[in-house]
Automatic annotation (TrEMBL):
Source species, domain of life: Bacteria
Lineage: Bacteria, Pseudomonadati, Pseudomonadota, Alphaproteobacteria, Hyphomicrobiales
Protein name: Septum formation initiator family protein
Pfam families: DivIC (PF04977)
Length: 108
């Protein structure tokens, strides 16, 4: 009986130190917690972005100006009253020259 109790005590001691939830496994558990917390924050931000986009689709909150702006941007169409700003694709800054000085390449 004594040998069985000492063996059981040894098993409990090994589990407390080197087992799956023991002292030595604590570092791995903390690393997993940090990694999963980062993933949770990223997923929560994605969920919030989808919620925001879904609220923009509410019929009471639709702004006709935003809808027409998005539609024109998708279709590459402009209205006669629109002001068009040419942007240099390399720098992302507006082109500051007159329309006579622009070459055919800059219109593309």
């Amino acid at each position: 009986m004594t040998a069985a109790l000492v063996g059981f005590l040894g098993y409990l001691g090994f589990s407390a130190i080197g087992g799956q939830f023991g002292i030595e496994s604590r570092k791995d558990i903390l690393v997993d917690i940090a990694r999963l917390s980062g993933q949770s924050a990223a997923l929560q931000a994605e969920i919030d972005a989808y919620k925001h986009r879904a609220t923009l689709l509410n019929a009471d909150r639709l702004d006709p100006d935003i809808i027409t702006e998005k539609a024109r941007a998708l279709l590459n169409m402009a209205n006669a009253d629109d002001v068009i700003v040419m942007v240099d694709p390399n720098t992302g800054k507006p082109i500051m020259s007159s329309s006579q000085n622009l070459t055919e390449n800059k219109f593309n």
